[in-house]
Write a structure and sequence with these properties.
The protein has about 425 residues and is of the alpha/beta class. The chain is built from 13 helices and 18 strands. The strands form 3 sheets. Strands 1, 2, 8, 9, 10, 11, 17 and 18 form an 8-stranded mixed sheet that branches. The longest helix has 19 residues. Bound molecules: flavin-adenine dinucleotide (FAD). InterPro entries: FAD-dep_OxRdtase (IPR006076), FAD/NAD-bd_sf (IPR036188).
Length: about 425
């Protein structure tokens, strides 16, 4: 099936009005960015604002990748709790990362306001829900850890959580008041438009097929044979990394995550299903996430087939899960379905590498990149502008490590999901 088809609710609502032309001639700029998602476009915006010339090269259109088709949930922080980072990275480095990652939604909100991006951002909080009673201890330990670090994260007992979500299947959970949601495609296109207005050269339909050192600069060549010479380069292709840097592609697993959007809920149901309008993600080995958007549609996602999905019929397991939580959904029907590639790394954390003199790569948000990728635009721009060093990036620089037996990842992912589902059943 054609992976270029993009059937998300965001595209169906408002197809992008602007297309960015392919690069057709030789260009020279201070900075070249490969990949027109949130990481690349936020870095581009901040770098042009710092007075640098920037060229962004995107294989399809800005927002075509995960950035324009994700769940739209704003989830502060990373996969592990703050104390884990302090222990692992030491007080200073760990605290810097915790401060940065857990305030990413605040930083995103500032950038959206400054660039005046209309993307329906709401800050009603993000809930982590314990699905089984055996999950409560871990979810509560996370809440306590964040609270001990002064974060506004409250425990919700079963009745309190039931009020916010409209059913009593969950055992309890926490509410992080800093979280929220938005339309991710509008956010990504808004960043592209802001960067372009500030002077960045943004090119769609421009896949970079070669990247090599040429004298004191980097030469990037596109599939149309056009070139960019740049002093510094940021590669941010995330789950869509192709053969441009083979070792980069082999250092992550591009796991598909799938999403269903319901038809708009009628008034009585819109008041009953997630009336608090928080974003929510479940505990468990196979994570389900959901929210009700500003058009009263339930947007619910999770693992699905490891191939492109364009029809709700391909995601029956997700619709059945939703109907178990809210049986009234039976009568509503699903408007659309889609999926995209999440970059999963071996430690479930984002990775930042210096691959050569002035050549950098950042990827691997493991499903939590919306706020973090945009927030990282500023420090990345400082580095690309030559004003800071790799160690100043909040994600500590590491050397790239290929995942062993990488070519077998589809089998590995299928096996892991099947095993996790089986474990879930027995945990129940
Ligand atoms: C279905 C789904 C649901 C998700 N839900 C959430 C969520 O609710 N909340 C959250 O925080 N995160 C979520 N994520 C993760 C989030 O979307 C990503 O972390 C984030 O968008 C990463 O942005 P990026 O710019 O690094 O990568 P991307 O947006 O994937 O952009 C990479 C771009 O690189 C381009 N590219 C690749 N190779 C080349 C090349 N050789 N030349 C030129 N261009 C190239 C691709 O075309 C692509 O557009 C989800 C992801 C998916 C797929």
């Amino acid at each position: 099936m054609d992976e270029t088809a993009h059937t998300s609710v965001y595209v169906l609502d408002r197809p992008p009005a602007v297309t960015y032309p392919a690069l057709t001639e030789a260009a020279v700029s201070d900075i070249a960015i490969v990949g027109g998602g949130l990481t690349g476009l936020s870095a581009a915006l901040h770098a042009v604002e710092a007075g640098k010339s920037v060229t962004v090269l995107e294989a399809y259109e800005p927002g075509w990748g995960a950035s324009g088709r994700n769940g739209g949930q704003l989830n502060p922080g990373l996969k592990y709790d703050p104390s884990w980072f302090l222990q692992k990275l030491g007080q200073q480095r760990g605290q810097a990362l915790v401060d940065f990652a857990w305030s990413s939604v605040d930083k995103l909100a500032e950038i959206i306001a400054r660039a005046d991006i209309a993307c329906d951002m709401r800050r009603n909080g993000t809930i982590r829900a314990a699905v089984k009673s055996s999950d409560i201890a871990a979810v509560q330990a996370s809440q306590q850890d964040m609270q001990e670090h002064g974060m506004p994260v409250d425990w919700l007992d079963r009745p309190a959580l039931a009020k916010l979500v409209g059913h009593d299947h969950y055992q309890g959970g926490f509410l992080d008041r800093r979280g929220g949601d938005l339309d991710p495609l509008r956010l990504t296109l808004g960043l592209a438009s802001a960067a372009s207005s500030a002077g960045a050269a943004i090119h769609g339909s421009s896949r970079v097929v070669s990247l090599r050192r040429d004298g004191s600069a980097w030469r990037l060549t596109t599939d149309a044979g056009a070139t960019v010479m740049a002093q510094r380069v940021l590669v941010c292709c995330n789950g869509y990394a192709d053969g441009l840097i083979p070792s980069l592609r082999q250092s992550l697993v591009p796991v598909f995550s799938s999403i269903l959007a319901s038809n708009p809920l009628p008034g009585n149901l819109a008041d009953r299903i997630m009336p608090g309008r928080q974003s929510l993600y479940e505990s468990g080995l196979v994570v389900v996430y959901c929210r009700v958007d500003d058009k009263n549609r339930l947007i619910i996602g999770g693992r699905g087939p490891m191939r492109p999905v364009t029809s709700p019929s391909a995601l029956r397991h997700i619709s059945l899960h939703a109907q178990k939580l809210w049986p009234e959904l039976n009568k509503i029907g699903w408007q659309t379905a889609w999926n995209g590639r999440v970059a999963v790394t071996n430690d479930y954390l984002p990775h930042f590498h210096e691959l050569g003199d002035g050549l950098y790569a950042l990827y691997g948000y493991n499903g939590r990149g919306v706020a973090l990728a945009v927030a990282l635009g500023q420090p990345l721009a400082g580095l690309l502008a030559g004003e800071s060093k790799p160690n100043d990036i909040p994600i500590p620089p590491t050397s790239m490590k290929r995942i062993p037996m990488h070519s077998f990842w589809p089998l590995g992912v299928k096996g892991t999901i099947a095993m996790s589902r089986l474990k879930e059943r027995f945990r129940g």
